[in-house]
Each structure stands twice: as C-alpha cells, then as structure tokens.
Design goal:
The protein contains 14 helices and ten strands. It is α/β, with parallel strands linked by helices. The chain folds into two domains: 3-214, Spore Coat Polysaccharide Biosynthesis Protein SpsA, Chain A (Alpha-Beta Complex), CATH 3.90.550.10; 221-330, no CATH class. It is globular.
Amino acid sequence: MSVENAKKVSFIMPVYNAADYLRQNVDSILNQDYQNIEVILVDDGSSDDSAVIIKEYMKNDNRVVGLFQENSGAPAARNNGMDYATGDYIQFVDSDDYLADNVLRKMVEAAEQTEADIVMGWYDTVNEAGEFGKTVTLPVEAGTYNGPELRETFSLATSVPGNKLLSARMVKENEIYFADLRQAQDLNYYLRLLLFAQKITVLDTVVYHYRVRSGSISHSYSLVILETIKSIEDAEAFYKERNAYDSHLFTNLKFKHYTFQLQKVPQIKNKADRKQAFAAFKQEFKRLDSSLLLPQFKGKALLINRLKLVLSPVYNSDLYTNYQTKKAKKNVVS
C-alpha cells in the first residue's frame, strides 16, 4: 500500500473575512501532488463572501469540509477544526497564506521515513500585492533530530504553524489545543508541541508562503502586543504542570520575543498605551537572569535593550514614534 493510500492529511484553516485570498489558499492545497487530504474550513462568523466561497468548494470537492461558527477567534476555530480532523497528519494554515507548489508529498514521505512528530520547512513572505520578500530558514540544517535534546534550539525557530506537518497522534493523545489569545497564539501552541515531539525532521526548502498584511493583528501596534507576555507565561505554566520547566529555555525565549515586541512599542500611536507597554516590557526584562542568555543574545542585543530602557523619554516620544512609523512603511514585506 502506498503512502498516499495509507496516510491522510487534515488541513485546518480558520477563516474570517478572507474572501480576497481564500481561493488561492484552498487551490494551493487541493492542487498539491499528494491527494489523500481533507480541507477543514472553519468560518469564524465572516461578514464577507467567505462562507459562500466555502460552500462552493464543499459542493465541488468532497475533500472539503465546511464548519460555521459565531465569531470566536482563530484559536477556537482551529480547535473546532481539530475535533473534526480524521487524518494521520495535521497541518494548520491561515486563510490569507498559501502552500508552495508540490511540497506535501515530500513532507509526508519525510514524516513516514523518519517517524517524525513534526516535519518543518522554510517559508517566505509575500505582501498584499503578491510580491515576495524574505525567506525564513530554520536554526538547524536539514535532517532528523531528537526533539527533547534540541528543544531549546527549536524553541527559537519560527512558530508560524503553516510550515509544519504534525503527527495527529501526538496532537490528539496529548490534547494539544490552542490557548485563547489575541496574539502569539502560534508561539504558545508551538511550545506545547515541542514538549511532546520526540523526533523533528527539517527540510531545507520553502513549503509555505506567509502573507504580511498591514492590517492584521500580528502587524498592528497597540496594547495587544502585551499578549506575548501572557502567551509565554501560559506556556511556562504548561511546562511546570508537567514537571518539564527549563529556566534556561524560557529565559532565552522571553528575551527573544520581548525584544521583538519592544521594537514595536514606538509605533503605538496612543502615548498612554505606548508608556504602558514600555513599562510592562521593562518590568519583564528586569526579571530575566542575563547570565542564562545564549551568546547570540548577549553583547550587542543586550546592550541595545538596556539603552532603550535607560533612554525611555526619547524612545517613548512622539518624535521617535513618527520616525519609526515612516521607517516601517518602507519595509512592506517583513
């Protein structure tokens, strides 16, 4: 029996007002070189034509499953889709992104040959006009790795879900669900996966196209960026509950992601919110034990953070906010 006949892949996609990109995404899945799939489209109370498009696909292809719920957010939509999934593997995709051509067979065959719990590849970015930007690689070369031994290394890799094929057995046996977060939900979920992944296989090829949209939550600048703190603390509690807490791992994880969010603070337009966000991250950095930081985070990165914290009046000023906003607009795809 061939792999294709034996193994099924469940794609789970939360859909909210995604009519502009939905067809491109679904077609990129249905047209893969591996056909034993189901595509679970979970409409999260869309007010555009998303539901109509989903029903069209359901009518024309029996591999497409449509679920319709009141607006509850992407985590709830993904969890809803997970409960309906019947595949041996699960892959989460966002409605405005899409798969690279003919990569699914390679991912499934890699999972079968290596018995990996996670197979992940590179992804690239694409903007709203369809222009490609940077390619995001992984922190290790192509190959198969022991998950627990390299958990810290993989924890610092991209948490985007779309470039990862997951063992449904691992996900369902350990009841790995998405937490109810407005931002950094992917990071939280990825850290949960890493706790149970015994084998991880890395491919050195682009498998996913990640669309950067200026109006999306992940690229908006408001107090929602504080959800990153909540996300990591929730994952931290998840590890502690299972006696798997690693202070070295979480110290470096916090430094990486809080540093990234600190860079966004000047682009928050409301000055009071800007100060609140800055104060929150300042407090978090004070709690970190810098002696536990990896070499890549010491030196320049640590120094720049400390300068920002010391020069808070300048960093939080309207003048600097205007400068950073203009600078960010020049980099359309990031």
